[in-house]
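subagent[fold] <- orchestrator: predict structure for attached chain, return tokens only, no commentary.
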Amino acid sequence: MSEHLALVVGLGNPGQRYQHNRHNAGAMFLQRLCDKFKGELRTESKFHGHAGRIEIGGHEVRLLFPTTYMNNSGKAVAAITHFYKIPPERILIAYDELDLPIGTTRLKKGGGPGGHNGVRDVLSALGSPDFLRLRFGIAHPGDASKVLDYVLGDFSRDDAISIEKEFDKALAIMPLLVKGEVQQAMTQLHTDPAVIKPKKPQPPTGG
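subagent[fold] -> orchestrator:
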């Protein structure tokens, strides 16, 4: 069991035009998390973003939405982690993932940026890959030349419903993550309920 989670960062771009973009999945989740645990995100210039705090299971958790635009997310993350002295292993970064289908969410610790510019900048700013990543699948448009327009486009109605369900699954594992029970959180998030089939009732015996 590791130290409890101290900071959740939701990546995205600031401003109304980007609010419902696929690229803002991490920021959308952060707002859901803030609402569920009755927090409030306020503009904090020293952290280059909107920051807040919530309490989960008796532990205080800081929240951050960088307003530096996606590719400079590390500036905001570095500012808040230096101020509160939060080590990388106590940070969760939530973001969109092209390489996962819609309706799939994955949790992992460490690794590279996987082609995500926001994560690349956070990695560079922290100087360590040891933070947790909560990746919400947005699927790939199928052609590299279409990626930019695709990620900066809004979710379709059906995809918006799917991503909200994924946010619910992710919210359900937050108490485990806050306690540092990362493996248990992964198992819960990654286990498809459809795979766990209930036992068929036995037919009654006798006449």
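orchestrator: received. Logging for downstream: The radius of gyration is 18 Å. The chain has one domain: 7-190.
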